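Step 1: inspect the first sequence and its tokens.
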Amino acid sequence: WEYRTLVGLLETTDTLGNVVRGSHLKSVNEAEVQKLGEEGWELVGVTSINFQGTTRNVIMFFKRQKA
């Protein structure tokens, strides 16, 4: 197996610049994840990165069998 990670930034903010709960991924789009799938990468896990009680990033873990 070979592995790859993709870090996504959560950046939905309110008018004061605070991150809103239920934010959506800003730096990763569906087309990017779709391309990884077409290259044989399988999403096997997602976890959040929390800083001072706020989730600002998520890490997506992918794997595929070595050729």
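Step 2: inspect the second sequence and its tokens, then contrast the two.
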Amino acid sequence: YNQADYKGFIFYSDYALKTGWYNSQLYYDRGSAYERLHEYSKAKKEYKRALKKGYYPAQSALENCKKRQIAWKKAKK
């Protein structure tokens, strides 16, 4: 993630989740990675998972993601 390899981060975090290793921040970071790839629906889903697991900074990230998604759709037109 720190090297801006968001697809790679998602790939390896998928593996971590399959092995049963996870924490609430992992879902938050996955949301951030999806957001940087402009995959907003997936990002929102991950932020919601982070919130469900108790990672409360995901609340503001989710709200901002919704705003960015609207702006992205407008910019694409």
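Step 3: confirm your contrast with the notes below.
The chain has a mean pLDDT of 91. Residues 58-76 form the longest helix (19 residues).
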